[in-house]
Amino acid sequence: MSEAVRGSPRRAFEPDWLARIGWLAALLYVVYAASLLDFTWARFVTGLEQAARFFDRMFPPDFSRWEAVLKGLKESLEIAVLASVGGIVLSLPIGFLAARNLMPAWVNWPARALIAACRTFHPVIVAIIFVKAVGFGALAGILALVIASVGFIAKLFAEAIEEISLKQVEAVRATGASFMNVIVFGVLPQVAARFIGFSTYQFDSNVRNSTMVGIVGAGGIGAPLFVAFQRFDYDVVCAILIAIVAVVFLCEILSNQVKRVFGDAMRDAREPRGG
Amino acid sequence: MRGSHAVAELHDTALPGSGIRREWQRFTPGQRLARFAVYFFVVAAFVLSLGTVEVIPEFLWDAPAQMQDLLVRMWPPDYAHYPASVHDALVETLHIATLGTVLAVVLAVPLGLLAAHNVTPSHTVNTLAKLALVTSRSVNSLVWALLFIAVFGPGALAGTLAIAFRSIGFVGKLLGEALEEAQPGPIEALKASGTPWPSLLVFGYWPQVKPAFWALVLLRWDINVRESAVLGLVGAGGIGVALNTAMNLFQWDRVAVVLLAIFVVVIVAEVVVTWVRGRIL
Question: What ipTM goes with this model?
């Protein structure tokens, strides 16, 4: 019986030669690129020794400069909060303008270009430009993260609006509602939950990035972290990293709570309609 | 569904015809309170931050003039600088992003398998794997870069490892979620035929998660191209080094060339990703 199965010419899973060649090409690329970037086993082994020394110096973490750490963290959080509020407030109108099912082409093309421009550069690079424009400090960080927030929230918000059901919009329009009323009663209720989801996600992202913009002088905990690295004060580095991870974690819990408060209510409110 | 607590609350529950107004409310008092708490918290955080943040408003009024000055210094871009030192750095950036993504995928696949409860039916292992993925994600790639520079010295190796370690959390989490959404039917059929678990993975799970897998690898590569461009600011190789050098020397016409190069590469990467996604998905 099993002989017969084994001997049969048909195979359930035909080998895909194109895919195998693809995997081989990927492997060749990895070897080529690794040699180009000078990755050698010797470097790796030296690195391991270095890592042991590094971790040895990192522990125990040095919290003696906790006041400076706290001040930096406070500034980072302020940057994140202000940038998130600014970004969310700006994303609402820009997202509406970029939605192709609500706006004519001459309105949504500039809006879409603006969103694309906001997305191109990493927040840290945008922060460099703003440090030059408004000087060192938190303001540059806030502006850089506002740009990043608009690039993310407005893009996804516009896509969410493009997916709405137009039946409800038509129904509201049929009652003779004004344009603003159509937006508020026909469009917003359909996308509010997702908008809140994008906003809380971006807030988390802003908290993370606000700890980094300090590396280029745009305020927050990034500057003390970078300075500690350059001075090889690895125990201070460790303390700052622990503080950052704790704050990021707390903010994630908070935004999950916010999502729960709004998400559940939205789902409950939708249930009766679905029957 | 009528009994759902959030449907409609009738306040002033009056008897029909008694003349007392009935008022419809969308949310229960608990939900209203929770929402009010969120609004209150957001406004309070905003006001507090606005009140205490150290911002010098005068700098903001000065910004247009400063921006104009910046643009004047940037124009015309020093194109001759591109073949001299930007091109090689740009290629290095692309290698860092790609190799980092490959390494991340190699490391993330086992973690993703361990994090999915239907593949690894052990709550402890799932939690541990998820913890590892969260750690990877909560450390910024610039911090990973600083850590690896301390270990391996400045250069592309630190950058590649930074990109890889930051991406593990992203790829692993999404891969784990895709695995958990896999249909149990084909898996059970394979199990019933006595399939060993490597074959179960290759023939049961892999065909189901393949589209999601390629989509998230492409997405992460796109993100990594952007991220690897800034790693050089802390000395982890790539085009960021050229950017940092030009900035420190206030050679703004060279900064303009570097920014243009990054801009073009990011746009090209996005076009490539869109094209590949259209081809394979």
Answer: 0.77
